[in-house]
Amino acid sequence: MRIDIITIHPKLLISPFEHSILKRAQQKKLVNVNIINLRNYANTKHKNTDDYAFGGGAGMVMMIEPIDNCIKALKADNHYDEIIYLSPDGEKLNQSVANQLSLCKNIILLCGHYKGVDERVRQHLITREISIGDYVLTGGELAAAVVADSIIRLLPGVLNDETSALNDSFQDGLVAPPVYTRPAEYNGWQVPEVLLSGNEKVIDDWRHQQSLNRTKIRRPDLLQ
Ligand code: ADE
C-alpha cells in the first residue's frame, strides 16, 4: 500500500513513522509512506499556499492551485483509490472505516490548516473527508498520522501475530478484555485465577464475557 500525505508542515509527520511497528512496516515494504511538501507545488514567488478569504473575515484559506498541482503530479504516477481530506466535519473515523481503507492500494491524505481549504478542493479534488473526533486540531497532520496508523497496523504481515488485530477493541463490535502479565500477585493484587488455569476454552469464554461486560459499562452505544 502507498500512503501519500500532503502537508505544509512535513516535519510534523516524520517522527510518527520512524518508530516501532510503523517503521518496520515500511522497512518490510508492506507500506510506502510519502510525506509531500505542498509548498513545492506553489506557483507564486513566495511559495504561498494560503490567501485571504473572499468576502472577508478572519483567517486564511488554503488555495486550490498548489493542491491541484500536487494531486495532479501524484496522479500522473499512481492511481488512487481515495483522496482524503482530514477535516473535523468529515465522516468520523472508526474501526470499520480503518478496515475499509486498509483494503485500498494507494491513498492520499490531505492535511488542512487555518480556516480550511478552498471549498472547490472539497467539491472537485477529493473523494472522501475524515474526522478523527469532534474537536478541532490546529491542522490535519496529527489526524493524518492517526488515520495512517489505524490503517497500517491492519495490513497483512505488519503485526507479528496477525490475529492480534482481529482481537482488538471494536473489531467484533466489543471493547477488548483486560490483560495481565507477571507477577501474578503485586501488592496483594491478584491476577484472575482463570488466566493461570491453562485451560484455553475457559480462558476464551472468560475473555468474551469480560468484553461483553466492559462494553455494556463503557460503550453501551456499541451494543445497539
Ligand atoms: N483537522 C482539524 N481538526 C481535525 C479533526 N478533528 N479531524 C480531522 N482533521 C482535523
Short description:
The chain is of the alpha/beta class and 224 residues long. Helix content is 31%, strand content 19%.
Radius of gyration: 22 Å
Number-wise, the strands total 9
Summarize the main sheet. 5 strands, parallel
Unreliably modeled segments: none
Shape: elongated
CATH class assignment of the largest domain: Alpha Beta
CATH superfamily of the largest domain: SPOUT methyltransferase, trefoil knot domain
Number of domains: 2
User: How much strand content do the residues show?
Assistant: 15-25%
Report the mean per-residue pLDDT as an integer. Answer: 96
Instruction: List the helices and strands in order.
Output: EHEEEHEHEHEHHEEH
Ligand roster: adenine
What percent of the residues sit in helical stretches (DSSP H or I)?
Answer: 25-40%
- The order of strands across the largest sheet is 2-1-6-5-7
CATH architecture of the largest domain: 3-Layer(aba) Sandwich
N-C termini distance = 34 Å
Discrete helix count: 7
Helix-strand category:
alpha/beta
CATH topology of the largest domain: Alpha/beta knot
Task: Provide a descriptive summary of the structure in words.
The protein has 224 residues and is of the alpha/beta class. The protein has 2 domains: 2-152, Alpha/beta knot (3-Layer(aba) Sandwich), CATH 3.40.1280.10; 172-223, Orthogonal Bundle (Trp Operon Repressor, Chain A), CATH 1.10.1270.20. The chain has 7 helices and 9 strands. It has helices spanning 20-27, 64-77, 95-101, 119-124, 141-152, 163-166, 200-218, and strands at residues 2-7, 32-37, 50-52, 60-62, 82-92, 106-111, 128-131, 185-186, 189-190. The strands form 3 sheets. The protein has a 5-stranded parallel β-sheet, sandwiched between helices. Strands 3-4 form a two-stranded antiparallel ribbon. Strands 8-9 form a two-stranded antiparallel ribbon. The longest helix has 19 residues, at 200-218. It is elongated, with a radius of gyration of 22 Å. The two termini are 34 Å apart. The model has no long low-confidence stretch (mean pLDDT 96).
